[in-house]
Structures are given as C-alpha cells and as structure tokens.
Amino acid sequence: MSDRLDRDDERFALGLLINGVPRNWATTFGDDDDPFRVDRYARIARSVEAAGFDLIFLADGVATSDRVARGGLEPLTLLSALAVLTERIGLVASVSTSFTEPFNLARQIASLDQLSGGRAGWNIVTSSGGGENFGRADLPHDERYRKGAEAAEVVLRLWRSWGEEAIVRDRATRRFFDDDQVRAIDFAGEFFSVRGPLNVPRSPQGIPLLAQAGSSEAGQEVGARYADLIFTTGLPSVEESIAFADRVKARAAAHGRARESVRVLPGVSPVIGSTEEEARRIWEDSVRDLDVWRDAEGFAKQFSIDIAQLELDAPLPREALPREEDVEGRRSRYGVLLGLIESGRIVTLRDLVRYTSTAAGHWFPIGAPEQIASQFLDRYRRGAADGFNVLGFFDEVPGGLEALTDGLVPALRANGLLRERPASGPGLRGSLGLPDRSEPRIEAPVAA
User: Cα separation of 190 and 125, whole Å?
Assistant: First the structure.
C-alpha cells in the first residue's frame, strides 16, 4: 500500500481550538491579555496562521452556572473581527442547532464566508442544556440529533439556493442579480418549515465548510451525512481511532459520499518540552495547583454524578457512575472516560480531574516536539486521523503557543507531515483539497 504522504489527494489538516479564559490564566496571562477583546485572539490566530495551521476553531456554550461561572465571546462575532485581521486561515464557529433557527444560522455563516473570502466553516453541534435561557425544554439526546440533522439539511439547501452565475453585474440592463439563478427551497420537516431562498449569495468556496463534533451513534450519522471535517475525541488507543475513522467513512459511503471527502480530526492536547523529562515536569506543574473539588463539581454536573459520595483519592466506585447511554450531553466523551476508568488508567477522582483538566478527555501525548510529531505521523499513516485539532493546553502553560509554532510545527515539517501543497480550489475548501459541494441540490432530508 502506498504511503499517504506520497499521494497528491491526501492532505494533512491542522486546526487549533482557542478558548476564552484558560484555567491557569493567572500564570499565563500577561497584563494586557483580555479574553473579551479581539487583541488576544488576533495574536494567537496570526501566530498559528504564519506557522502553517489550516484553521482556528471556536467552541461555544449557551449557558453557564451561578456556582461555577464561565464566560466567553460569541463565536461568529469574534470570527468576523478576526476575518479582517487574518489572511489565509480558516474560521470555524460552533453554532448550536438546538436554539438557532437554520435560516439565521445559514445567513450568518454565509456572511462570514463572504467577508473572509471563503474561509468560513460551521461546526454542527447540539446543546444538552440551556433551554431555560430560550424559554423551551431541553430535548432528549436522540431527538436533539434528529433536530440537528434537519437543521443541517435546511442550511445546506439554503446555501445551494443561489446558482453560480446569480451575480451578473450587467450595467446595460442595470441588473446586479439574475433572478432565475435564485430559487426557493420549500422545506417542511419535523422541526422546521423554511421557504427560502437565502438572502446571501453563493459562497466563494461553493458552500462554507461543514464540521461536526459529536461521536455518539447519532452524532456519527449526522457527521457522515453532512460534515467535511469530524472533530472527534482523540482516543488514547490507535486501534480505537482507526476503527472510529473507518466507521464514519463507511457511513459516509452509505450516503453516497466518497470516503476521502470526510476528514477525521481527533482532538489532541500535546504537552511539549525540549525533552520528554521537561514535558512531564511541565504537565505535573500544570495540574499541581488544581482546585480539584471545584473542577470535579463542573464535571459531575455535566455527567450527572453525585460527587458527595466520592472520596478524592479512593478508587471510583463503578456503581456511582451513570451508564453511557444515560448521559445526555457529551455522551461519547463520557464513554471514553468511562473506558479509561474501567481499564484502570484512571483510578481516583483526583486522577479523573487531572486527566480532564489537561485535555477534557482527549489524547494528550507528552514529549519533545520530535516525539509528538512522530506519533502524529504514525496515526496519520495508519488511518487513525486525517489531521488533528489541537486543544487548549497550549494556553495553560507559559510559552505554550510558542511550543506549538516554534517546536511542534517545524518537527511536523521535518517529518513531511505538514507541507505546502497547491490549493485545489478557492477558500478553505481549496486549501484542504475538499470538493465545493455546491451541487447537486439535495431533494429529501435524511434523519439521524
């Protein structure tokens, strides 16, 4: 079998998740770092753009707690500001289908795509909580994903409602638009009824890039049907990662899509030092001062665990933990953590908090840049990943961003994983070698 590195149709993708307020902000923030001003995000985005990252990715939440407060900027607003402060890097926003009307969502993402010259993407997510902020009840897991699939269908049809030649700019007839190139979608489904067409023209890249984050069975089905990129939990086991990628791509093929048109980008939170020993010291220092009970409370609320009956350094009793199928939010992430507990890799509540504080349940390799780059290459070659979405540990330690841009990236270039390739088309899709997907128009919705 040929090496993936030698194939012109294979492109390694590298993304970065940017968080608002890192847990260790008191250590890592300079006096001028303000998570509610654009300067901080522009500095990070420009730095990774210059290094060669393909995209930045913003997560989102539609609720916080008055006990464990969290706050951050709305992703589309922030990315619109970053669009004029960057030149090449992709801009991917998480927007929940649980509380956003698909017409507004399609319009907002399409507007960002136009303003950025075809660099926008939408990460399809659902919300397990937050209904109290929108005057509605939270939906059960599978119903939530049915609604998410239908919302994605509507958005995709709206983006396709403008033809490629809809803008004519004919001075003689004073026509800017060709009315015959713009069509209604007349969608009626279980959750949404949308006539269309969209009131924003066709994307410079065909349609904005579609990503999906969620690895449950229902999430995999939505991703396989609609997404170009799958942001999934970075599993510690290479074999499990290979199996996951194979399942998602087989599902995509069952929907008539080419397997290679779906790229799997597991989350990874590398802990980087000049040597493996230094990297381990960096990690130990980062988790030494954890407010363990506060962090455990947030984790327990998310997964409905009663921590009042748990001891910090005693083995976690299996009977105190819910079954994976009973968890409503981040079910697949919980499943990974449950597997680590059952295998003995996580033993106590303290272990669990240390693990989740570093990578939120994702893979976190520890080592020198060359060691981590070698592990990236191995997973890529074996089909466990088509790239990686680097998570927020870089923001938790002093010099973490530079460890990525000046350490890991050069090591990825040295081993041939990260390299310049000619774009296959315009915008973010072209830079990733993805088809534009503007046609054909989909005629019938497919439920997750």
Answer: 18
d(CA 141, CA 90): 30
Q: Which residues lie below 8 Å from residue 208, measured CB to CB, with a gap of 6+?
A: 109, 110, 112, 113, 120, 121, 122, 159
Those residues whose C-beta lies under 8 Å from the C-beta of residue 14, and which sit 6 or more positions away, are 52, 53, 54, 55, 387, 388, 390, 412, 418
The angle that helices 141-159 and 102-115 make with each other, rounded to 10 degrees, is 50
Residue written as tokens 């913003």?
Answer: 58
The encoded tokens of residue 155 equal: 């958005």
Angle subtended at Cα 93 by Cα 91 and Cα 98, rounded to the nearest 5 degrees: 165
**What single letter denotes the amino acid at residue 229?**
L
354 and 361 Cβ atoms separated by less than 8 Å: no
Cβ-based burial of 29 (10 A; exposed 0-12, middle 13-18, buried ≥19): middle
Neighbour count for residue 136 (Cβ, 10 Å) = 11
pLDDT, one tens digit per residue, over 83-106 is: 999 999 999 999 999 999 999 999
Query: Is the Cα dihedral 250, 254, 259, 264 positive or negative?
Result: negative
Q: What is the pLDDT of residues 339-369, one digit of tens each?
A: 777 777 777 888 887 877 777 778 899 999 9
Distance CA 438, CA 448 (A): 22
What pTM was estimated for this model as a whole? 0.89
Q: At what angle do helices 292-303 and 349-359 cross, to 10 degrees?
A: 80
* DSSP secondary structure code for residue 406 in this structure: I
pLDDT one-digit tens code per residue, 153-173 = 999 999 999 998 999 999 999
Alpha carbon separation from 31 to 1, 25, 26 (Å, rounded) = 53, 11, 10
Q: How far apart are CA 431 and CA 240, in angstroms?
A: 29
Give the list of residues 6+ apart from residue 4 with CB closer than 8 angstroms, or none: 10, 380, 381, 383
* Biggest alpha carbon–alpha carbon distance for the chain: 80
Assess contact for 29 and 66: CB atoms under 8 A.
Answer: no
Residue 131, SS3 per DSSP: helix
Range list of β-strands (E), 195-315: 209-213, 229-232, 263-268, 271-272
Do 145 and 181 meet the contact criterion of CB atoms below 8 Å apart? no
Q: In degrees rounded to 5, what are phi and psi of residue 347?
A: -110, -50
